[in-house]
Design goal:
The protein is of the alpha/beta class and 257 residues long. 40% of the residues lie in helices and 15% in strands. The N and C termini lie close together (6 Å). The structure holds phosphoenolpyruvate (PEP).
Length: 257
């Protein structure tokens, strides 16, 4: 299976800067590599990028969607509006949960994505306090179960889960702690086995699982060597095209499937 490598640009790069970055990144990507590369830019960049990118090398996704297709929701953008431009939508990122998104809302956004033919990348992860109280797996499994509440066994095969422990995310300040594979293995296994419990073995095998949290060009190999994951979600380091290209390249080299 091709590895899935996702760039979360967060609130960085206006359309001109976005086009500049992909123009430098694309020549470094070999389309024959067994890697699916997805860029999640700010929503204002989506249309100009859609007209610019080489679609044999890059796909686009939104950093957020609304759970309804249209209506009186000032400042929001719906999956129905983005359909045709994006293949993926990030849902439930911890930076959005911190602004008040809860699991009920996240479950409705996952349903909206599916309804519009868009693949959800659902983010789950525990904070440092929860980890120190040995609650990581419980917190993450509870989030996962609630976030998938509206997903059927047929639909789960099209869902991507991103495990992003909050204590490992850099938030652009370089303060994220680099998790070791041993720090995250048990939680990743708990995620896969929860999906199997909920949807049967086929659901667990079909669902793609990513890791994210301060991943960079230097330490990506450690994660890519893990059997538990199918790819990476990269924040800060995806803003550097050379580093991000190295991560893509490493993903193909480490793919033993
Ligand atoms: C993220 O917030 O989704 C993320 C992966 O960020 P970073 O890589 O900067 O920790």
């Amino acid at each position: 299976m091709a590895r899935l490598i996702v760039a979360n640009w967060k609130m960085n790069l206006d359309p001109a800067a976005a086009i500049k970055l992909v123009t430098k990144l694309e020549p470094k990507i070999d389309p024959s590599e067994r890697v699916e590369v997805v860029i999640l830019p700010p929503s204002i960049d989506l249309y100009p990028l859609d007209e610019t990118i080489d679609k044999t090398k890059l796909k686009l996704g939104a950093q957020n969607i609304h759970y309804l297709d249209e209506g009186p929701f000032t400042g929001e953008v719906s999956a129905a509006m983005l359909k045709g431009v994006i293949d993926y939508a990030l849902i439930g990122h911890s930076e959005r949960r911190a602004m008040g998104e809860d699991d009920k809302l996240i479950a409705k956004k996952v349903a909206a994505a599916y309804r519009n033919g868009i693949t959800s990348i659902v983010c789950i992860g525990e904070n440092l306090d929860q980890r120190e109280h040995k609650l990581s797996s419980k917190v993450v499994v509870d989030q996962l179960t609630a976030d998938l509440a509206l997903v059927t066994a047929e639909e789960v095969k099209d869902i991507v889960i991103a495990y992003e422990p909050l204590w490992a995310i850099s938030h652009g300040d370089g303060k994220g702690r680099h998790a070791t594979p041993d720090d995250i293995r048990a939680v990743l296994r708990a995620i896969r086995s929860t999906v199997e419990d909920l949807y049967g073995e086929a659901g667990g095998v079909g669902m793609r699982l990513l890791y994210g949290g301060s991943v960079n060009a230097d330490d990506c190999m450690a994660y890519l060597g893990m059997d538990e994951i199918d790819g990476l979600l990269v924040g800060g380091d995806s803003l550097n095209y050379e580093d991000f290209a190295s991560i893509i390249d490493a993903s193909d080299r480490e793919n033993t499937d």
